[in-house]
């Protein structure tokens, strides 16, 4: 799980700083603890389990390099992370750790947790660029320049028109981003075969029900990289059958 897997060469410095291995590990932990809290609230696990689990794991110093070494054997970072977390817990809590979840639930949801704070910064960047384009567009409304088609010189245009197209694209991207961010990014939880064996969990105040998981149907999040190429979105993986549910992170 090297940093390069969750970083992009065109990300901002703040984005790079928030996409380290340590951040990904903490995001996986946030998913697991939220899952335990929700299961406890729904009566799927005994009372006080989630609090004790949080007390054990939030202060634990996970070793990202050891987790990274375990990726080769399991194919993802969640498997060695879950194993490391279970080793820290007392025996009576071990059965409730990662209950009903599968590794893709952890990895996908952790990536969404990392992206959540980036959306606000991206919105601010798009708005700033659009504002900068408007006076430039007006100042060069009559400034002629070469128009091109297929990289060849064509009819003349004005630089103001070119900037206007930039500004329009920036605003369209900003509005698309808002439609993705407003309902909250999706939490993946389908279980090993996509049918949520852990039972009904949609009563959580932090998660709201969505009609299907997105292990193989990525429409709920695939628009993020089209808004900005520097945003990260995982590629689709193996499809999972069944009539599952997923949730969205609505807490900010």
Automatic annotation (TrEMBL):
Which keywords does the record carry?
Isomerase
Q: What is its EC number?
A: 5.5.1.2
Keyword Transmembrane recorded: no
Q: Which Gene3D superfamilies is this protein grouped with?
A: Fumarase/aspartase (Central domain)
What InterPro entries does the entry give?
A: Fumarate_lyase_fam, Fumarate_lyase_N, L-Aspartase-like
Residues covered by the Fumarate lyase N-terminal domain: 94-194
The record's GO molecular-function terms, alphabetically, read: 3-carboxy-cis,cis-muconate cycloisomerase activity
Q: Which family does it belong to?
A: Belongs to the class-II fumarase/aspartase family.
| Name of the protein in its database record | 3-carboxy-cis,cis-muconate cycloisomerase
Species assigned in the record: Halomonas elongata
């Amino acid at each position: 799980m090297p940093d390069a897997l969750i970083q992009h060469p065109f990300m901002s410095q703040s984005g790079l700083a928030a996409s380290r291995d340590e951040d990904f590990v903490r995001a996986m932990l946030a998913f697991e603890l939220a899952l335990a809290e929700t299961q406890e609230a729904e009566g799927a696990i005994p009372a006080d389990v989630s609090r004790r689990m949080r007390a054990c794991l939030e202060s634990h110093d996970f070793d990202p390099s050891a987790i990274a070494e375990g990726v080769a054997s399991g194919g993802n970072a969640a498997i060695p992370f879950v194993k490391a977390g279970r080793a820290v817990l007392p025996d009576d809590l071990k059965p409730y750790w990662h209950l009903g979840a599968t590794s893709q639930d952890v990895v996908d949801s952790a990536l969404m947790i990392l992206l959540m704070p980036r959306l606000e910064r991206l919105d601010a960047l798009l708005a700033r660029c659009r504002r900068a384009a408007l006076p430039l567009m007006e100042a060069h409304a009559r400034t002629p320049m070469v128009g091109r088609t297929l990289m060849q010189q064509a009819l003349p245009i004005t630089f103001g028109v070119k900037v206007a197209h930039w500004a329009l694209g920036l605003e369209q991207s900003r509005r698309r981003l808002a439609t993705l961010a407003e309902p909250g990014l999706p939490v993946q939880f389908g279980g090993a075969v996509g049918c949520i064996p852990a039972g009904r969990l949609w009563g959580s105040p932090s998660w709201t029900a969505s009609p299907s998981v997105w292990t193989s149907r990525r429409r709920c999040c695939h628009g993020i990289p089209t808004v900005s190429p520097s945003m990260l979105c995982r590629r689709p993986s193996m499809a999972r059958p069944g009539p599952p549910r997923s949730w969205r992170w609505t807490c900010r």
